[in-house]
Amino acid sequence: MDGVEDRDDKCVNTPIMDLVNEEGCSTESLLNSHTFTLLTGLSYSDTDYNTLAKTDTLTTSISLDYTYKNFSFGISTSYYENNSETFSATGFNDTFITTEYKLVDDVFYISLGVGLILPTYESLYATNEIDYMANVHLGYTVENVNLFALYGYTLVNDTDTTQKVYYQNIHYASVGIGYFFDSKFYANTSYNISQSVYKDIEDIESLSLYGYYSLSDSLFVTANYMYGLSESASDTFVLVSLGYKF
């Protein structure tokens, strides 16, 4: 229905909302270039990263992302409930504001991101300040296989305390491999390592499994499981999210 006779059409099955040239190949999409994504999730972990004590933590998260062509902007926050044998606590975690620019071709992509970490978490020592972060994400896709790597750096501005709590800037990285089973289902596995925000704590290492499944053009679900490889990492982390694109 693109107005080009099938015998002359060099690009079959072009999307119905695309404008095509005389050969039937897409030249422009009539779909809106602006996309919003609302994502809400529930996660469980069993480590308190402030004390490294084994603590059951339930976290409810929500994020809103706006994408225009190669640019994206996002804001996310979360609310936690900690419970252990000796204490319980609730409250908001820090709030993240991020922006990203992505360069993409048929097989390779690179994205550059920067962001702010707003101190909405109530620190025990009242030293929480605005932190700054930057990252670069590389990916390479051949047929259905996706290879990727991420490196990031967070500039931590929190102030050391007289209780001998010493903060440090954070380097973090991930490498992994993913597979596109079809147009709806994607999964990957990765190795992750990050410095702790606290000095003299060993690096946080983990293995993760991630899955994405599209329920419709607008709805999708994601699931993430992480297994801790170091004493500083949560033994178990599970996150399930529901997203809506509009």
What does this structure look like?
There is one protein chain. This protein is mainly beta and 246 residues long. The chain is built from no helices and 15 strands. A twelve-stranded antiparallel beta barrel has the order 3-4-5-7-8-9-10-11-12-13-14-15. Strands 1-2 form a two-stranded antiparallel ribbon. β5 and β6 form a beta hairpin. The two termini are 26 Å apart. The model has no long low-confidence stretch (mean pLDDT 89).
Question: Main traits of this protein?
Answer:
246 residues; mainly beta; twelve-stranded antiparallel beta barrel; 59% strand; elongated
Quote the average pLDDT: 89
Beta fraction: over 45%
Strand order of the largest sheet: 3-4-5-7-8-9-10-11-12-13-14-15
Secondary structure class reads: mainly beta
**Poorly predicted segments:** none
Radius of gyration: 22 Å
Number of strands: 15
Count of helical regions = 0
From the spread of the alpha carbons, the general shape counts as: elongated
Order of helices and strands: EEEEEEEEEEEEEEE
The largest sheet is: 12 strands, antiparallel, barrel
The end-to-end span amounts to: 26 Å
Roughly what percent helix?
under 10%
